[in-house]
Amino acid sequence: MDNSIVQGILEQQVLSVAKAVEEQIDDQISALDRLDPDDIEALRERRLQQMKKMAEKRSRWIKLGHGEYTEIHNEKEFFSIVKASERVVCHFYRENWPCKVMDKHLAILAKQHIETRFIKLNAEKSQYLSEKLRIVVLPTLALVKNAKVEDYVVGFDELGGRDDFSTEELEERIAKADVIIFEGESSGKLSKLKAPTRNVRHGATSYASDSE
């Protein structure tokens, strides 16, 4: 097809989209113009109530330990936390390199997603819970919603099988389980993966392994 024809088609499409957006904005402005003072006050009051509820939620979340990435030390703490918080990400770890990589990203996400509690638990010191949840590979993230484990992120396989994945890639993966409120691009499409720079045996070590 001739380039000039293609250019003409593209220009028409752009103009059509621009016109539709302009009409939508005009409709919104007209709707606002038709509001009387009582309607405006009602909208203002509704917005204030929404802001108040969100402030109350944030205050409650902070009191529960949200906003920080914290370590817990036993199963009792785990069950107490998942009952108190609607959304929880629990990192089952051991002292090795892959788990330290996961720690770095989770510490960032904990501050970005105050709606979710981010915790870590040493799997070797909580064997009952690890066996109950069938934790075998470390690191493993248990993604908990309403006191139920909805999903797991096991090792780095879903993050490209490498240890230089981005915080955003992990964020998108966790969002698939609806355990964080994700406002970025579709979580169904992860960012393009780079070539691996470090071999970490599929990004994880076995819970039963003695190797680091």
Report on this model:
The protein has 212 residues and is an alpha/beta fold. 47% of the residues lie in helices and 16% in strands. It contains six helices and seven strands; from the N terminus they run H-H-E-H-E-H-E-H-E-E-E-H-E. It has helices spanning 3-33, 37-63, 75-84, 97-112, 127-132, 167-175; strands spanning 69-72, 87-93, 117-122, 137-138, 140-145, 148-154, 205-206. A five-stranded mixed β-sheet has the order 1-3-2-5-6. A hairpin with a 2-residue loop joins strand 5 (140-145) and strand 6. It is flat. It starts with a helix and ends in a 6-residue tail after the last strand.
Indicate the topology:
Elements: H1 3-33, H2 37-63, E1 69-72, H3 75-84, E2 87-93, H4 97-112, E3 117-122, H5 127-132, E4 137-138, E5 140-145, E6 148-154, H6 167-175, E7 205-206
Parallel strand pairs: 1-3, 2-3
Antiparallel strand pairs: 2-5, 4-7, 5-6
